[in-house]
Amino acid sequence: MKSLRTRLALFCSLLIVVVVLFTSSLSYLEGKARVRSMQLQHLEDVVTRLSDDIDDRVRTRHVLLEQAAASLQLDGNNIRKHAPEILHGFRYLKGSFSSIMLFDAEGNVVADYPELPGRRGTSVLDRAYFAQTRDTLRSQISEPVRVAGDIKRSLIIFTSPILDEHGQFAGVLGGSLELFAPELFGDLRSIAIGGTGYININTRASRLTIFHPDRSRIMQASPDTSRDPVFGRALQGWDGSTESLAANGEPALMVYRNMKNVNWVVGGVFPLREAYEPISVMARNHMLIVLLATLLAFPVGWWGVHRLLGPLQALRGKVQAMAFGAEKSVKIQGSHELEMLAQTLTDVFGERERISEELAAREAFFRALNESSPLGIFVTDADGLLVYCNRATLALGGLAQREEDWLGRHWLDAVHPAQRDTIEPEWQALRHGDAAGFYQLCHLTGVRGVPIRVELRFTRLQQGSILRFLGVVHDVSDREEALLSMNAERERGMAILTSIADAVVLTNQLDEVSYINPPAQRLLGLNAEEAQGRSLALFVSLAYPDSGQAVSLATLAETRMAVPVELDLLSRDMRLQPVVLTLSVVQAAGSMHGYKICVLHDDSERRRRERKHRWEATHDALTNLLNRRGFLGALTVLLDNGEAMAQNNVVVMMDLDHFKQVNDSGGHQAGDQILQDIAAILQKRLRNTDVISRLGGDEFALILYNCTRDTAQGIMEAVRGDIARLRPQSNPDVCRVTASIGLTQVQPQDTRPHDIIQRADLRCYQAKEQGRNRVVATLGSQ
């Protein structure tokens, strides 16, 4: 089986057999489907034709009998008196029926043709066909019945009602027909469906078999529908064809048709073993073909492969000759694919020679590059003995200037004696595969015994079963000195930052905390250990104090760098701290480029003073309500807000009546108490969103947002009543105070606060002129 020729021969043989089997299987399946379709179609044609024929025979006799009965319009007496004469006129029906009979209304046979002894006078009152004809006044066809005294005869009775001239039931005209008479089932026995197929007819109502090739089953109960479910569906009215198990358990093709004029089912059954007999013959022929193909496949495949592999043997000899240099190229004829393979082999051998030359050139280049490199590069064997080292390695290690003097020595001989015991365990771990890499900062002996600080790295080189180690030595003396200087400078910078009173936070390019001084730790509620290396946004959030909009350090670095910015700082413990942030970004080259320096100054006291000054500038100190300046500012904001101006807004001016008498009788203390009580009344009656202000003295002004004039008038009436009932607690005997109130609705065309206040003032003056202590909402036509 290792021979390609044998494998190809077997493959070709199997391929031929598989193809023959596949095509034979497809042919068999297709032929089987065609045979099934043809046999089923033939069975459907036979059953449909037979069903239509019997149905037509029954319908013809049914119509003849109906027409004969409809021609009679006699009452019951006439039928009994003239029965023989009446029936004599219907002798022509004898050609369609076995016999014809005339029944009176009581179900007695009063005449028959041909006459049978003992039949006249017989009562059929209890027979179903008579009762149904009498009750429904419609023609009936009876269920098949056995003839008394003769078990070999089976009849069906056709009946049609006879009505008198008033449409009342007078009698029945009937005709009998033998099932196996030539007029009905007589020719069914000549119908053949193959050798074992058969036709059967069953009644649906009485479930009787009235025709079957097996005479013993005629007029017997139909098969059990549980054993033949397809037959059960047909008895329930289903028409169709299918493949199922027959009543005897044998697979068969089945076709059923329900007749229209009589309650019968015609069925056709064709066993599958006979239906598929033609395809079985074809299958045996195909098996002979497959067997013959199997016997011939291997010899034919072997011969074909031998012929096809002839050029391949010639190619083998050419390749062997080229491998030993006897040939410069491979040429073969006889196969396009082998010609391409020969050309490919020629190209491969040429490429191999070119690569060998290129590798030699690269090896020379590598050596020249290593010799000129400032880094020390050397290679050791598995035991650490030097097999190669460049000039930089010799110079850094203080080794002999000739490579040959060090080859074969251990590389640890170049390490300063004080550090060999520390480095050797790391080296042994690398040798035995216990460590993934090797990195050490150490001292080499150096030239003239002066130690040199170097960075030493090792990498494993596994080439098949050969283990090597590549070492790289880098002089880091200058870098170490620079690092020491930088650390000293860092220490000085940290000392300066620690002494600054403001909070200072240093973050890297990702806004992660690199340094946080003690004031910043107190301000943010942090300690340096938990904040180090974590994003500043995890501990604090910054927002503009006016809008509350959050802002990040990255945004401030782009827009407000080196500019003091007032912000609100929300710390991790949910303390809101007003601060002034000055943000700087390091622009120097190096790893610190992009670092951010955040200087946070506590701005709480200054903002508290500003808030107090702003409040005092817009509020009345006695009542804590807005003053004139605050009221004008609120009204100006309303006029500038288009969305608010689209709603209903009302401005109210209120002036106290008799307030001077209060001051005169009770003193300024009583007057101040009245003003404070009125402010409380207004705050109670109005919403928190409305504007309440004291313009000065005893004059108040209000703005009711999103409020109609009628609603505002009702509110101010309630305010007026509260003021009229007001008495100072300190001096109840002081003169009673009332209020004159005027209100106006803000109009869409209003642009100046002065115009609105003037309209409200005019209504307030009108309230005073009309007797005080009232609310005026209209003035003239306004």
TrEMBL record:
Domain GGDEF: residue ranges: 647-780
Keywords tagged on the record: Cell membrane, Membrane, Nucleotidyltransferase, Transferase, Transmembrane, Transmembrane helix
Record bears the keyword Transmembrane: yes
Domain PAS: 362-403, 489-547
Tagged with keyword Transmembrane: yes
InterPro entries xref list: Biofilm_reg_signaling (IPR052155), dCache_1 (IPR033479), GGDEF_dom (IPR000160), Nucleotide_cyclase (IPR029787), PAS (IPR000014), PAS-like_dom_sf (IPR035965), PAS_4 (IPR013656), PAS_fold (IPR013767)
Membrane topology label: Multi-pass membrane protein
Record EC number: 2.7.7.65
Xref: Pfam families: dCache_1, GGDEF, PAS, PAS_4
NCBIfam families: GGDEF (TIGR00254), sensory_box (TIGR00229)
Name listed for the protein in its UniProt record: Diguanylate cyclase
Natural source organism: Vogesella aquatica
